[in-house]
Amino acid sequence: MIRYQKLGYVALNVSDMDKSCTFYEKIVGLQLVERVKDGPAFFRCSRDHHNLVLYPSERPGLKRVGLEVENPEALEQAFEHFTKAGLNPKELNKNEQKMLAQGKTFRFKDPNSCITFEFYSDITQMATEYKHTVTKIARLGHVVVKVPEFEKTIKFLKEVMNFKTSDYLSESIEFLRVFPNSYHHSFAVARAAEHQFHHVNFMVTDIDDIGIARNRMINNGVTITNGPGRHQPSGSIFLYYLDPDELTIEYSFGMEEFPEEGARKAKMLERNRLTLDLWGGKPDPRNCAFGYIEGAESKVQV
């Protein structure tokens, strides 16, 4: 089955590139790599060329999810596997691969969640380390979506894409890791009436990053929608806030890790507010409440 290295990057659609580029660099603390005229802007929080990509759009939300597999052999195996599964994966042309600073890359659209997933094994490693500024971001953590076809989506992610469940709230939300990556979840799915972006997460280096970020958001007029608090499922301390399009961004510190072999079984968690925040916080109604999923209006293959 498919073996992943990590959640490689998340691509978001934003309505105002200038405003969003400033926000993600100066407020979130990502490092701008390059901005293509009338096209995407690439940001990083690692040695990778990008971990977040912004695209101009009138429909802000999730554009696609980039998954890095372990090696070129795993990429070939994945392409063959998804072809046999009838997903019609399409390799990107050389020009787009060059723009993305990636090697061989292919995409397909999940027919259940309507998410475009992208697969690659090679991405340009930058000459210098990512430079911390306002926050010591450790890595891109996870992305979460809402779907109406909850059971079908979970079945697809586990049986076709080889994701593994870490914990779940029965018929409500499921936390999945991209096997054999050790982190509690790189992807999660919540039940909803419509397809919708939920949030994207960046993991930070220490708890001071959470406290300092809270004050930075307040001082810069950024809306905090939840936290600081602590999640029961992963054990992480969190802070949620809104970007200029009111897409939800999360910082988190700490996360349970799983061994490749002998991992504990997934826990079925109580549907209780304290499960999502052991500190008893009450989220703002705008928390994780907005964001289109590109392609959800159509089931045509990309």
From TrEMBL:
Any one Gene Ontology BP term: L-methylmalonyl-CoA metabolic process
Keyword tags: Dioxygenase, Metal-binding, Oxidoreductase
Annotated Gene3D superfamilies: 2,3-Dihydroxybiphenyl 1,2-Dioxygenase, domain 1
GO molecular function: dioxygenase activity; metal ion binding; methylmalonyl-CoA epimerase activity
VOC domain residues: 6-122, 139-254
Residues of the signal peptide: none
InterPro entries reported for this sequence: Glyas_Bleomycin-R_OHBP_Dase (IPR029068), Glyas_Fos-R_dOase_dom (IPR004360), MMCE/EMCE_epimerase (IPR051785), VOC_core (IPR037523)
Alphabetical list of Pfam families matching this protein: Glyoxalase (PF00903)
Metal-binding as UniProt keyword: yes
Cross-referenced PANTHER family: METHYLMALONYL-COA EPIMERASE, METHYLMALONYL-COA EPIMERASE, MITOCHONDRIAL
Protein name as catalogued: 2,3-dihydroxy-p-cumate-3,4-dioxygenase
